[in-house]
Design brief:
Elements lengths: L8 H57 L10 H7 L4 E7 L4 E6 L11 H11 L5 E7 L2 E10 L2 H36 L2 H13 L13 H71 L4 H25 L4 H4 L1 H16 L4 E7 L7 H21 L4 E9 L9 E8 L19 H11 L3 E6 L5 E8 H13 L1
């Protein structure tokens, strides 16, 4: 059975045209065969009618002349005028006896039809059927004029006519299919543009638009496509703007929380350490057994201060604009190595100069790295994390410099989210990373290895990031 799935539309329509044409040919051929058989039947019936009337005239002449010696029946005159190849003419008396019969010879210039066609034609049309007309004299039937045709003759004629039709059909059908396929290929040529437009939309190019087409149906599809692209671009723009606001709110909340922790919790810990030191001095003079408890309180306060300092560093990192992106990332990695104490192991490689980057660009890249390292260390259980930051110079043919950020780890990926990406549970996670990269005009890809490991790639054009920074400052 023909498999229609994934087949070419032009081929599919051309095959349907071929099938319909074949059916039409079969119907037309059947119609011609029926009309030919009807014509033969009518001709035989007319011959039988002429023969019957001739015999009636002969019988009337005999009776009028009272000449019993006259020959009856006499079909010579009729046979001489109507006889054709394969035609038979006879007179049959009331007793069923054939008194006279004439038959024309069969054609010799017509090829014999195949046995299968002959058997089918005879089953459908019964070409040897007789045409009978009564011969009446003085109101009484004295016999029948019978005409019939040799079945081989109409069968051979039908095969000859069908062969000519078949030859015409075998020539016309390929030409028709070729013309239909060419016409369809020309008419459906705009579908390539529609497919290219859809692929551009799928790749994230929301500026893709379709031109007007000659066909009204395709032109309507193009109008709907352009409207959909415009609405999608507007919706994504609104979503990006909302996400940017959420990111700004998150950063502001982090700064506010960092100030609150530093001002309130930090001062309280400093006061506890001071009270512990004072209590130790008093205990050293009055109650030596309390020295150990005072030292324990001081150590606990010191550990809490270190923990608070790490939390403040993550909530509000050092000013990237002042230190620079490279120095800030090196400090971030050093902090993680210091806290992790070798497990996991963080490594960083930086190539190129990042001193002229805008502050917002450096801050967004820093947050992306911070989010990725946090996920690798706390959620993926990685034992080794590799961070590479590279400033790639423009190609020789011209273009812009690009910032390439790559983070690889050997941890276990998280549970996939509905979009197929592993879910990063820290902050806004992967969504926040994507929006930060989108705000810089870059691209982000995240892949998980089998059975473990993950790779994060971020590519940001420097020119696009500068424009994004200008728009952010204007907003």
């Amino acid at each position: 059975m023909w498999n229609w799935s994934g087949s070419d539309l032009k081929l599919r329509l051309t095959l349907r045209v071929a099938i319909v044409s074949t059916l039409c040919f079969a119907v037309i051929s059947g119609y011609f065969l029926i009309e030919a058989d009807r014509s033969v039947r009518g001709r035989i019936a007319a011959v039988a009618d002429v023969a019957a009337k001739t015999l009636e005239l002969q019988q009337s002449k005999i009776q009028w002349l009272n000449n019993a010696r006259s020959e009856f029946p006499d079909l010579d005159s009729v046979a001489a005028s109507v006889m054709t190849p394969g035609l038979c003419l006879a007179f049959r008396s009331n007793s069923g006896e054939i008194s006279q019969r004439f038959c024309g010879g069969a054609q010799t210039d017509t090829a014999a039809p195949p046995l299968a066609f002959a058997a089918l034609y005879r089953r459908l049309f019964d070409p040897g059927r007789e045409a009978v007309q009564q011969v009446v004299s003085r109101g009484n039937a004295i016999g029948e004029a019978v005409a019939w045709i040799d079945p081989a003759v109409p069968t051979a004629e039908a095969w000859h006519d069908a062969g000519r039709l078949m030859a015409v059909f075998m020539i016309a059908l390929p030409l028709l299919c070729a013309l239909v396929y060419a016409a369809l290929a020309r008419a459906l040529r705009p579908t390539r543009q529609i497919r290219d437009g859809l692929e551009r939309i799928a790749a994230g190019d929301l500026a893709a638009r379709l031109p007007p087409f000659d066909l009204a149906e395709l032109s309507a599809i193009g109008d709907v496509f352009n409207q959909l692209a415009e609405r999608l671009a507007a919706a994504l723009s609104d979503r990006n703007a909302l996400t940017q606001k959420l990111i700004l709110v998150q950063d502001e909340e982090r700064r506010h929380l960092a100030r609150e922790l530093h001002d309130e919790f930090g001062q309280s810990l400093a006061a506890i350490r001071a009270l512990a030191a004072s209590a130790r001095q008093t205990a050293a003079a009055d109650c030596p057994p309390l020295l150990a408890e005072c030292d324990g309180i001081a150590r606990t306060a010191t550990d809490m201060m270190e923990t608070l300092r790490g939390a403040l560093f993550r909530l509000r990192p050092p000013d990237v604009d002042e230190l620079g992106l490279a120095a800030s990332l090196e400090g971030l990695v050093a902090g993680w190595n210091g806290r992790a104490r070798g497990q996991p192991r963080f490594e960083i490689t930086i190539s190129g100069s990042f001193e002229r980057l805008a502050a917002s660009v450096s801050a967004n890249l820093y947050r992306i790295v911070q989010e990725a390292l946090t996920n690798a260390a706390k959620h993926a259980g990685a034992t080794r994390v590799m961070l590479r930051l590279e400033m790639r110079e423009p190609p020789p043919g011209g273009g812009d410099s690009t910032i390439v950020l790559a983070i690889d780890d050997d941890g276990q990926p998280g549970d996939p989210d509905p979009k197929g990406d592993p879910q990063l549970r820290s902050g806004l996670g992967l969504l926040g990373m994507r929006e930060r990269v989108a705000a810089l005009g870059g691209r982000l890809s995240f892949e998980t290895g089998q059975p473990s490991g993950s790779s994060l790639r971020v590519i940001v054009p420097v020119a696009a990031s500068r424009e994004a920074a200008q728009v952010e400052r204007a907003a």
